[in-house]
From TrEMBL:
The organism of origin for this protein: Spiroplasma mirum ATCC 29335
GO CC, alphabetical: cytoplasm
Keywords carried by this UniProt record: Cytoplasm, DNA damage, DNA repair, Hydrolase
Gene that produces this protein: ung
Lineage summary: Bacteria, Bacillati, Mycoplasmatota, Mollicutes, Entomoplasmatales
Protein name per the record: Uracil-DNA glycosylase
Residues annotated as the enzyme's active site: D65 (proton acceptor)
Length: 220
């Protein structure tokens, strides 16, 4: 069963699991994975919730849905496993990381090191059918993700939210502390000209320090 997560997430998942949308979502996911090729692998659908607890989150970076080509999606937004060719958006993220903080991350697209330091790399649509972007947009993930953001904002007021692109910014109304929002264009090739030179990683670390938290070592 893919519904595995750290026990600290239990209050959230218990409240959601009683709701009709979530019961339907679980059923739909099971059927989709039985009849179609979907990503990420079932055991990685909630990989993020198995890697970091709510109390350890410092930064939430919101993505849309997983990479939809074979071997790419690993359950963390924007991330791919070692040895996988870097998708264009991730290449652009690494370009800015290098310009911003002189960090070269191009040898590994695996961002698990960021997650372990408190960066919640979250796709608001957690699954996708092969080569069909947004194919799982309407099966319940958006309600789940909205409720997740509401939950995080109920229990924490010190999380930084990074909203790249109009889609991610549509979730801004659910974030209570507007001073902890960092906005910008999406790193896709279509909007890279607006994404570049915004010093996002420097902004995040400066805000963490301002909030008396340890900055992220983006080399990890």
């Amino acid at each position: 069963m893919w519904l595995k997560y750290f026990s600290e997430w239990k209050p959230f998942f218990e409240q959601e699991s009683k709701k009709p949308y979530f019961i339907k979502l679980v059923s739909t996911i099971q059927k989709e994975y039985q009849t179609k090729t979907c990503y990420p692998a079932q055991e990685n659908i909630l990989a993020l919730f198995n890697t970091i607890t709510p109390s350890k989150i410092k930064v939430v970076i919101i993505g849309q849905d997983p990479y939809h080509n074979k071997g790419q999606a690993n359950g963390l937004s924007f991330s791919v496993n070692d040895g996988v060719k870097l998708p264009p958006s991730l290449v652009n993220i690494f370009k800015e990381l290098q310009k911003d903080l002189n960090i070269d991350h191009f040898q590994s697209g695996n961002l698990i090191g960021w997650v372990k330091q408190g960066v919640f790399l979250y796709n608001t649509i957690c699954t996708v059918v092969k080569k069909s972007p947004l194919s799982h947009k309407d099966i319940g993930w958006l309600e789940f993700s909205t409720n997740l953001l509401i939950y995080l904002n109920e229990i924490r007021d010190d999380i930084i939210y990074v909203l790249w692109g109009n889609y991610a910014q549509s979730f801004a109304p659910y974030i209570k502390n507007k001073d902890n929002i960092i906005k910008g264009a999406h790193p896709s090739p279509f909007s890279y000209h607006l994404f570049k030179d915004q010093h996002f990683f420097q902004q995040i670390n400066e805000l963490l320090i301002k909030n008396k938290k340890k900055s992220i070592d983006w080399k990890m």
